[in-house]
Amino acid sequence: MAKKKKKERASDAEPAGDGAVRVVAHPRARTSVRRWRGRAGLLALIGVTWLSLRAGAPAFDAVLRGLAGGVVAQFVAWAAGVVIWRHLVLAELAAHRDARAAAAAERRAAAEQRTAVIAARN
């Protein structure tokens, strides 16, 4: 048998160098979205199956409905996770930008103070 090379998945690829912010490039976001998708799908599968069985549906139909509910819940959780993490990543970037601006202003003030002290000595 011939060995095939493993194809590099898009999620494992390095982020593009165009400067765009991507949720997939954030390691905590990626794992969080995957975790929520799994939990939502499993809970929807169990919940819809249980509710269908209580409503009197045959077991096959109940499980089929549960699977459909699990798939739908995974898509909903994925979309919600991406939207939430997009806002969180942008907030992190804004906080980082503000911290860098504050540090630069502090360095600038310290440099001006040093130049004022040196000027006062002369």
Protein architecture, described:
The protein has one domain. The protein is 75% helix and 0% strand. The chain is mainly alpha-helical and 122 residues long. It has helices at 27-54, 59-121. The longest helix is centred in the C-terminal third of the chain and has 63 residues, at 59-121.
Biggest sheet, open or closed, and with what strands and sense?
none
**Overall pLDDT, averaged?**
87
Number of strands: 0
What is the count of DSSP helices, taking H or I runs of 4+ residues? 2
Please provide the ordered H/E string of secondary-structure elements.
Answer: HH
Our measurement of the CA-to-CA distance between the termini, rounded to an integer number of angstroms, reads: 83 Å
User: Helicity range of the residues?
Assistant: over 70%
Number of domains: 1
Structural class: mainly alpha
Over the alpha carbons, how many angstroms does the gyration radius reach?
26 Å
Sequence stretches where pLDDT stays below 50 over 5 or more residues: none
What fraction of residues sit in β-strands? under 5%
Write down the overall geometry: elongated
